[in-house]
Design brief:
four-stranded antiparallel β-sheet, alpha+beta
């Protein structure tokens, strides 16, 4: 599933096309994705100006001139494509099968933005802007990792007394918004912390290492356009390339780039954790 850097990359690709533009019409090719589309979806967004295109955690948001916010989630295989754009160097076939073009935004300037999703795990929902702080999928989320609200001091307080493994705690969206499996593995390696260590043992010196490691990994992944290990591609068709910088993720039995010991893999809460048993304690 695309994580925060991938979704931010998509936002940056779509913003020049959609932000400030008017949705002339919307074509909806099926009644639902993971959930049903909003009632009268096409009617409610057609003619609306997109005042702002934002992102919260792994969600894209469109602030509409109608007083509603369109919330969009990519699921596992969702992809937006801008019509008429040039094919990029890292183009691949995923997202090109028109049978999976479920939503098409026709913009007033003649351009189109198509949402393609073969597995249909993504979704789109409308919510009143005046009460968006109560939108249930986002209301309980923690701070963004690159925000001013996130720091070692914040981690000290958020992890105090938590008996769960640090890996599970970092994937808890109520603690930090947007972190996923890939970047948690990488941040724990950079900070020298075992994914098996209890979260309650992190406050203090370990938190002082972990917070900047999270910031660095997320910032570098955004700069690299995300990680293309499955179906992710940005709005122009380019694949992200942060996967070429992985220190531990998906590198089981390969040498740790820091010490040379073999990278290990364990399963925690149904997710693979990759780590170096020598570097990470």
């Amino acid at each position: 599933m695309p994580e925060l850097p991938e979704v931010e990359t998509v936002r940056r690709g779509l913003a020049p096309v959609m932000e400030g533009a008017v949705i002339q019409s919307l074509l909806q090719n099926r009644p639902n994705l993971r959930f049903p589309f909003p009632e009268r979806f096409a009617e409610r967004v057609s003619g609306a100006r997109i005042e702002r295109m934002g992102r919260r955690a792994k969600f894209l948001t469109l602030d509409l001139s109608t007083g509603e916010v369109l919330v969009m989630h990519l699921g596992m295989t969702g992809r937006f494509t801008v019509g008429g754009g040039a094919t990029a160097d890292f183009h691949h076939a995923t997202g090109n099968d028109a049978r999976h073009d479920h939503v098409v935004f026709q913009m007033a300037d003649g351009r189109s933005v198509t949402y393609n999703d073969p597995r249909r795990f993504g979704f789109m929902e409308l919510w009143p802007a005046a009460t968006f702080d109560t939108y249930p999928r986002l209301a309980a989320m923690g701070p963004e990792p690159l925000s001013n609200a996130f720091s070692a001091t914040y981690l000290d307080a958020a992890l105090k007394g938590k008996a769960t493994p640090i890996k599970a705690a970092l994937l808890d969206q109520s603690i930090i918004a947007g972190l996923g499996n890939i970047y948690v593995c990488e941040a724990l390696h950079r900070s020298g912390i075992s994914p098996k260590r209890k979260a309650s043992s992190i406050p203090g010196q370990r938190a002082a290492r972990l917070a900047p490691a999270i910031n660095q990994v997320i910032a570098e992944a955004i700069d690299a356009g995300g990680s293309s290990i499955s179906d992710f591609a940005n709005a122009s068709g380019e694949l992200g390339y942060f996967q070429h910088r992985f220190d531990v993720y998906d590198r089981e039995h390969k040498p740790c780039k820091t010490c040379g010991a073999n990278v290990k893999r364990i399963v925690q809460s149904g997710r693979s954790s990759f780590y170096c048993g020598t570097c990470q304690r």
